[in-house]
Amino acid sequence: MKSFLRPLTLALLTVSCTVPAPASAQTTPALKAPAGFKVTEYATGFKQPRFMVVASNGDVLLSDMGAGSVYVMPDANKDGKADSKQVYVTGLNQPHGLAIHGGYLYVAETDKVVRFAYKPGDLKASGQPETLLSLPSGGGHSTRTVEFGPDGKMYVAAGSSCNVCEESDPKRAAIWVYDADGKNGKVYASGLRNPVGIEWVGDTLYSTNNGRDNLGDDIPPEGFYKVKAGAFYGWPYCYTTKPGEAQVWDKDFGKKSASTCTNATPAFALTTAHAAPLGLAAYTGSSFPAAYKGQLFIALHGSWNRSAKSGYKVVTVDPASGKVTDFLTGFLNGQRTEGRPVDLVVLADGSLLLTDDGAGKVWRIQYQSS
User: Fold this and answer.
1) Enclosing H/E stretch for 156
2) CATH superfamily label, 7-367
């Protein structure tokens, strides 16, 4: 699709791993990006860096699930590297999703959503968190994600408690919508086994999703979804094998009947099974080549149960065509893991930040025109 998308190997500094990750994730990966792109270290020394949000003054806030903390990373001199990493708050229960809205920083912990009074430039929480709502905890998927829509409503995603089962709690394997204060919650969309990454782009809510395990190396493919209010996305009864086409009945699970799948909305794009897509960001900057405008950048965290590993890279997904293209690779060296991408955000200068919880750091991706 893009003639300039030829690999460019980038030599990066060696750093020791600071997070309990695969034993092989001890060296900095030799990352490969399209020609003209440069990848540098933005911040390091985290235990399990996960999701980010950018404040209006440019400060980047980051959740660290392993440390139970949220950090602030200012870059006052605009040199493309965090000046410091300040502990905004600690003692949280696996903090993951972050959002800034209406004078508050929202944090999705594994068992609740809380908020702190916040203004751009704050480096430390000024008071105790306000708990807005409780969430089911435990089970197979522990991350929780929070996002605000153009309607000012709060959207919260929680994964399933199992590989494949019928959930007793409707808040699991679903996206719920609430008022900004956590009241008047209701199901927005269901049948998403583990929708870790959600992001509004205009009037469309996009979601990544982690498909079920134990059906072999290639089934089911991982899906990317355009989420509509009231829609059902298949799990645990069916899954998408071809983008935009009717979902396939999960015969191995065997609950209900194949006719259930006729009401399931399919993914609009797919990638390799077990690749574990997590965070996503629509490119809204202006410093990348024009072909990237509006593309979805998605982090594939990587498989844990596939005979030949999949994922461990960043891809772009075209919202119109569903085409998936490799963008940043090199986190996987043969079958040796050297990094695990998690989440992306767009900075005001048009560069991207990427968290890597396999190396405990944040990368900056910029484009340098010739």
Assistant:
1) strand 154-158
2) TolB, C-terminal domain (2.120.10.30)
